[in-house]
Design a protein that fits this description.
The complex is a heterodimer. Chain A is built from 14 helices and 15 strands. Chain A is α/β, with parallel strands linked by helices. In chain A, helix 4 runs antiparallel to helix 12, helix 9 runs parallel beside helix 10 and helix 12 crosses helix 14. Chain A starts with 7 loop residues before the first helix and ends in a 6-residue tail after the last helix. In chain B, a hairpin with an 8-residue loop joins strand 11 and strand 12. The chains are: A alpha/beta, B alpha/beta. Chains A and B meet through helix 1, helix 2, helix 3, helix 4 and helix 5 of A and helix 1, helix 2, helix 3, helix 4 and helix 5 of B.
Chain lengths: 454, 499
Amino acid sequence: MTYIPHTERDIAQMLEKIGVGSLDDLMQVPDAVKIRAELDIVPALPEYQLARRLSRMAAKNTAVDAISFLGAGAYRHYVPPAIGALAMRGEFLTAYTPYQAEVSQGYLQAIYEWQTYICLLTGMDIANASVYDGATALAEGAIMAINANGRKKILVSRAVDPNYRAVLKTYCDGLDITIDEVPLAADGSTDQAKLRDALAGKEYAAIAIQSPNFFGVVDGLEPGSAEAARASGTVPIAVVSEAISLAALATPASWGAQIVVGEAQSFGVAQAYGGPYVGFIASTTEHMRRIPGRLVGKSVDNRDQIAYVLTLQAREQHIRRERATSNICTNQAHCALIATIYLALLGKTGLRDVAGLNLERSRELATAVSSIPGCDLRFEAPVFNEFVVNVHQPAETVLAKLRERNILGGVALGRFYPEFADSILMTATELTTTSDITALAAALKEVVNVPARV
Amino acid sequence: MSLHASEALIFEIGEEGRANAYVETAKPLGTFLPKALLRDDLPLPDNTELDVVRHFTRLSQRTFGIDLGFYPLGSCTMKYNPRVNDQMANLPGFRDLHPYAPDELAQGALQVMYELERSLASLFGMAAFSLNPSAGAHAELAALLIAKKYFKDNGQVVRDKVIVPDTAHGTNPASAAMCGFKVISIPSDARGRVDVELLKKAVGPDTAVCMMTNPNTLGLFEDHVHEITAAVHAAGGLMYYDGANGNAIMGNVRPGDMGFDLMHLNTHKTFTIPHGGGGAGHGPVGVAAHLVDYLPTPVVRAVPKPDADPKLAPSDQLTFSLDFDRPKSIGPMRSFWSNFAHAVRALAYIYANGAEGLKKVSQLAVLNANYIRVGIRDVIETPYDEICRHEFVASAQELKKATGVRALDIAKALLDKGYMAPTIYFPLIVPECLMIEPTETESKETLDTFIAALREIIATAKSDPQAIMDAPVNTVVGRVDETRAARQPDLRWHPPSTN
């Protein structure tokens, strides 16, 4: 038996106290629902064999050994070892949701600090204790806007991460909400004129726009578009999938966002093949009672000491059931803790350096790639740490050939944007080295293999 | 002395320039982007690593987890979280794998997902699971979206009602509302089970889904479940199994055999994934054969390797890929494929136990719950006093009438004695409810000392009720003013300049 303390003697004594003859007597169910099959489960393994088997599987994931320019919503950043040492402390790891505030002050304070960091980074007034990830944050943010103005349509920039838009659609299908898209401008940003046209009808609950957008482009609302949103009573939602950008770029608040949703995986959370990550939702004060999920507030105890506690719970499912702002129960507390520790360790200086290095390495990469015949930058607008390269042939073919050279050259855009089937989204972070870039450039030269232009 | 009365906020310590050299110094940001695109300032503190380590170590010491003591939180299954699971999830081949890694370079990760999915399908009697949803409530939402789309595809748009027993978790009605369903609550009968006659009357051509937890949140097995599934199916509705209480049934009885069409699991409960202070969770959603096409995307597809060595383990003879091309699917529920690191942990737990071990886990979880029940029932009311499953409810109503001491006070007094409190005031139908779930990883000695502590608290409540109403006194803070927190919300720290 594994992780179980009971001796046969314990079991016998306990059964006697309960007054039943056997464990089977405790588990009686009607004949009609008795188990009808042999379980097809691998036989129990001793711990060393379990570790060996899973280690063999981990070793098959050879993508981790390649030179990688993958990003597109999940980013490779430096993670200081102090994060793991702190976050893996058993008190944090094995706690439940801090319902009992008196014995959860540490975690509650950490979440209060997380909420503060998110506010300071986004320029918003309040932030919640986290949601599942960036995509669900967008869906929940859209529902906040729907609840604010009662409209049944959402406007979304086509430059918002396609996965986020897909999840938004999944959620909106449930609520019979329609989604319309704003097209791209030629420079890779959101077409502001078309956006303003769409807002003129005053029919949208929200306009969601991502910056940096899926193509890496610094995007947002132009002042005229922000004004159009205000005039139409549409809630501007900013989407952030590369949270490091918040340390450098003008805040979403500064260009008019009332709700900021996003993904904080970049703050020290492992890539882990897609999860768990950590979504955030921040907003202006006016949306406070519509924000989903947990909120930690500062209060006092009966000894006049500062004390933290879960608050505004009247919004939540365990109190309001079908009238709750969301069905969220579990959030991503441990990932939010990791992100909070990351932000504390890096600080203002470290975050600015990471952001600056992302800007620098991505420009070095863009320069190297765009100097190769047959490779051009597709868009001209300024980017943060990723950009789109047009390889003038099926991107999947080019990436497959790079893969043979142990390089993951980026994400082929064709799966999301059929019109960009010849384009690759490439990412550089502070961990991208000059030798990585040199290797990619050399390989691309061989792979793209087009005659020199005359 | 480590436990100060309060710990300063991270924003109140530190000095600008006290930076840690994790990366090189970057050029000014204006080198790369026009000033108009950049933020003016970044009002965050710089702290030394030592200060940060001390801060969060102190915060950890002000936090109670399973590693510190018994955690009998009903419906939450706070069992021991094996450390080998975390080590496996943290293997570089898993930890550093990008979600867009090509399938052929991520075969090990896909194998983990495939094996976990197949194991769960067998263990719970479903045709297939999707590991896509992020937590239990998220999987409930996925399941109801599946039901909605299934009925729409079959031209049955009139099915807009979801039936939920009054003992259900709050997420059930909240999830139904997020799919636009109307919620019908069915009262429990005197035995603490769904009132089958009332339910049969509520079922009709407008019934979409009936959501059940079995054993229910009173810890009782719904022994008429087959009648309920038959009635709902006869009306053309679907049955949903809330797997929050999966720890009571593993390997002993299966939702599939009970007639459920849809279900979720909280693998962070049943399969020892650490709760981490409230997440991240992991909520696989399972379906019967007629609903497989509707599962969220992506799902893992397996095909035999043409040249596989037949001596290898069965899953080692397969090639895996992520399948996004599923026209009937409700679509994705989240940014990426799964809370993958948790899938590794859950599979490690299944490996450690095997089918017989998992079956035993549930039996001993039930044993432990019944042992506490019979150990306290002579001093506190146990409203449904029969063989329970992995949890049971007690009620402090009589005690409150006699002494003024409420369930909340008992909970706080338990904190003083070094225990986490049970879930209180849930389910809603039991007044002054204490919902106790010990889990199987606790020893008889732990249960004996907990029983003694609870009996002592109840004895003190009768002799000196004020002592219990003043609890806790041994914790770093006393009872927190929740009214003030809600009336004057203070949800963040403000920099001094903008105060």
